[in-house]
Amino acid sequence: MTAAPNIFEHIKHLDDDGREYWSSRELSSALGYTDYRNFENVIANAKEACKNSSQTISDHFVDVNEMIKLAKGAEREIKTVLLSRYACYLIVQSADPRKEAVALGHSYFAIQTRRQELEDERRLQLRQEIKEHNKSLASAAKQAGVVLPIDYAIFQNSGYKGLYGGLTKQDIHKRKGLKKSQDILDHMGSEELAANLFRATQTEAKLARDGTNTKQAANETHYAVGRKIRQIIKDFGNTMPEDLPTPSESVKQLESRKKKAQKKLTSGEE
């Protein structure tokens, strides 16, 4: 019985961007539903719960059509829903509690969902800290002679190149597949954000401690700090920053969702 939750791990899929999802057809079978029509009612209830929790339904439930093979080589088109982890969590909450697999699914997805909530909270906190420390870093760089916008762009890229093995901010942006207006820091997970926060704080401290007073020296310091942090990551056998997954939601989306939830809570809505 303790190994049963692995069923849900086994039927998990990853899309081209490394984001996980589940098929409603496979999930219905794993939860013990022999008639998919009954499971469609569970999905409908889960969608309503998603809406009531201030989430966008289409972010978690994606309707698709797929072809299945029948006898003698025939095919038939069926409707399937691609589900996020959160969608699966809502589904098991709405499913028949008398089914043993539903109880196991509830435990599995509750744990996974809580882990994601903690990750989201860490991202929000770290992103805010980076905003504040980047202001201090900019001030320290200015004291070292980095004054013009173009100078600061070069200074910033020096740090990124050190930490990301030669990649510039533009390279990272492209690697993450972001739009021109999107900030790379808003599309980092907590591990990547923490590495960049460490880069910013240590560079700021070293510039001040060394009394750096030229643009070239400031750039070299930023690069050296980034490269040192990269070496530490490598020494610990951890994933390089550029190879860490890009979260499906940006920090701005998390902030927006959090504000909506807080507004709903303070307004007394059910």
What does it look like?
The chain has 270 residues and is an alpha+beta fold. The protein folds into 2 domains: 6-96; 120-266, no CATH class. 62% of the residues lie in helices and 9% in strands. It is built from 11 helices and 4 strands. It has helices at residues 6-10, 24-30, 36-52, 57-60, 85-94, 100-143, 149-163, 169-175, 190-210, 215-235, 251-266, and strands at residues 13-14, 20-23, 61-69, 75-83. It has a 4-stranded antiparallel β-sheet. β3 (61-69) and β4 (75-83) form a beta hairpin. α5 (85-94) runs antiparallel to α6 (100-143), α7 packs parallel to α10 and α9 packs across α10. The longest helix has 44 residues, at 100-143.
Helix % is: 55-70%
* Weakly predicted, low-confidence segments: none
Computed CA radius of gyration, to the nearest angstrom: 24 Å
* Count of domains: 2
β-strand amount: 5-15%
Shape call:
elongated
Overall average residue pLDDT:
91
**Structural class computed from helices and strand pairing:** alpha+beta
What is the first-to-last residue Cα distance? 36 Å
Largest sheet: 4 strands, antiparallel
Strand order of the biggest β-sheet: 1-2-4-3
Order of helices and strands: HEEHHHEEHHHHHHH
Secondary structure tally: strands = 4
Number of alpha- plus pi-helical segments = 11
